[in-house]
Amino acid sequence: MIKITEASIEDITKIQKIAHTTWPITYGQILTKDQLDYMLDLIYSDEALTGQMEKKEQLFYLISEDETILGFIGIEHNYQSQAITKIHKIYLLPETQGKGIGKKVIEEIQKLALENHSTSLSLNVNRFNTALGFYKNIGFEIKEDVNIEIGNGYLMEDYVMEKKL
Question: Which structural domains are found in the chain, ordered by start?
Answer without folding.
Answer: 2-164 (3.40.630.30)
